[in-house]
Amino acid sequence: MFKLLGTNKNARYGKLKLAHGEVETPVFMPVGTQGSVKAMYTDALIQIGFNIILGNTYHLYLRPGCNILDRFGGLNNFMNWDRPILTDSGGFQIMSLSKLTKIDNEGVHFQSHIDGKKFYLTPDLSMKIQHSIGSDIQMVLDQCIEFDDNISQVEQAMNLSLKWAELSKKSFLQSPGRLLFGIVQGGVDESLRIKSSKETIDIGFDGYAIGGLAVGEGHKLMLKTLDFTIPQLPTDKPRYLMGVGTPMDLIESVKRGVDMFDCVMPTRAGRHGLAYTKNGKINLRNSKYAEDKLPVDETSSCPITSRYSRAYLHHLFKSKEMLAGMITTHINLNYYNSIMVELRDAIFTQKLDDAILNIYENWDKKENI
Amino acid sequence: MFKLLGTNKNARYGKLKLAHGEVETPVFMPVGTQGSVKAMYTDALIQIGFNIILGNTYHLYLRPGCNILDRFGGLNNFMNWDRPILTDSGGFQIMSLSKLTKIDNEGVHFQSHIDGKKFYLTPDLSMKIQHSIGSDIQMVLDQCIEFDDNISQVEQAMNLSLKWAELSKKSFLQSPGRLLFGIVQGGVDESLRIKSSKETIDIGFDGYAIGGLAVGEGHKLMLKTLDFTIPQLPTDKPRYLMGVGTPMDLIESVKRGVDMFDCVMPTRAGRHGLAYTKNGKINLRNSKYAEDKLPVDETSSCPITSRYSRAYLHHLFKSKEMLAGMITTHINLNYYNSIMVELRDAIFTQKLDDAILNIYENWDKKENI
Question: What structural domains and CATH numbers belong to chain A?
Fold first, then answer.
């Protein structure tokens, strides 16, 4: 269940009530692809303040598989995470990771990227897997496009996705606190997005995702697409922008009325030495930090962020120490969460424009970095 | 300063007072080669109960180097660890890691394993580096042998090590709570070990290490060497068996009067899927654990050890998730520390034989694994 608690222009502050607890929106969900948010203990996620994470249906289906997930009563028990989980449908990873993908009207044939084993994912199977995972928010199976697909390919995929959305809804097992989200497709084309929105809403879901973005179209075209898509969506349901993005992507999308996000960026960048901070990005591998005694952000209330010097982190990355990725992942997830906390507060107090201006000014100042 | 607080036959319970705090012995010191105990936050080390870790002079000299260590006022500040540190002299890593090693009477020429840069390590330089690191316990530079060296090579290395021990002592900067340990060499030869012990004691150190073991001689020959070496050492100084070992190595050495240990085994094995538990070793990569809902040790008071199922850890190792190595390293270090706590208590209460029998019986039972 979603409750809208406040708005500031198009931006929204709300609350999701889910089987495993409540989630305030706008929210960023760390990605726990294979039953682990990479390099993070679940305790540390809770310490940062995260109340929901994302799991990937494609990966969890291949490994550990539904038998083991069923044996544990779902992913929460398996990975020691007692708060909500959202799962994608598997469609996106099939396109990006697996080999020999073949789509027909009923589903997708694919080969596992691990061992080449053949599978056939249908809307019904996707819902069954997500039921085994036991996620609080489940997504309909959709056909994902690539950015360079032509308009007729985009339209075809959109229409197939609408059909699969209906089939997904039929297979979804309703239970209290478990939601099913539809996904609006249509690439960056306004008329397709409007059509997809209408027909997805006609089927009727607990929330609406905007799919098919962050695939190479760039920040401006993504925002333009949001500008004509979001007004099509009902105000009383949560809106989830899939796979997005940079801190600026998040902020500009919240401003336009998006409620939920997920992205591998903070975790992946963290493992590769890029730290996100309130003063901008820091590439910790850069030798200019080799003797820098300052922490990544000395004003942060996060003990991990304010404790370790840039010189130490630089040393750990140069030395290929696991602790490098552990610390910087924590720093980035903390920063991402802190932005969402700040935006929620600002929406609630009707000061979103000021808050955003303040965030951008701090990035531009690049104090001490 | 070392205070002997109790004995049980040859085994000893004692306390070291060092610049950064007190350390109870017998003690196992986790290895923090490059300024990080691999995959472990320092908070987690403290949570387990460790009061001292080891740093490697060779690695820290090459990276980050003395300039940066001096800038930070030592390794403690650099890596956020406020408890004692012991450093080796660099000799062992030069032999095992670097290229083009050439020894003369004054020191060792070597090339960095990182970039091939040439260096010349002398007793004086080793002490200068350890001073920059700021370690509580520093080691004299010694010439390390290989297990297949013949007796005249072993004797030659031993004699050179004695000379370097004198030079190291001359260069060591005394200050309260900073100790310098000598290293007894002589391979597995009784007369050489006796000679090395006598002459090292004649020079006079705050503690005595037994070097040149755990290089392939095996458990029995190592214990035999301890049996004729330890009686040569003074009772009022700590004894440190370098680079050892398995849990059984530790237990049998404590029984014979060793006070201090370091080894990469628990951390390295942890990253590769091998968990040490009170019921024996568990190879978490083994498919027999794929559906095992039990934790590695459900009776452990360590939350990390008792929380995660073997099936989940198996999954994380198969999926190459960093969390796999993080959790299993923690489990192993906790187990190593718990053995030392148990042995200390048993020595203090004069029940060491019973305690050891109990530990071995639990390994043999292999309950539930």
Answer: 2-263 (3.20.20.105), 270-365 (no CATH)
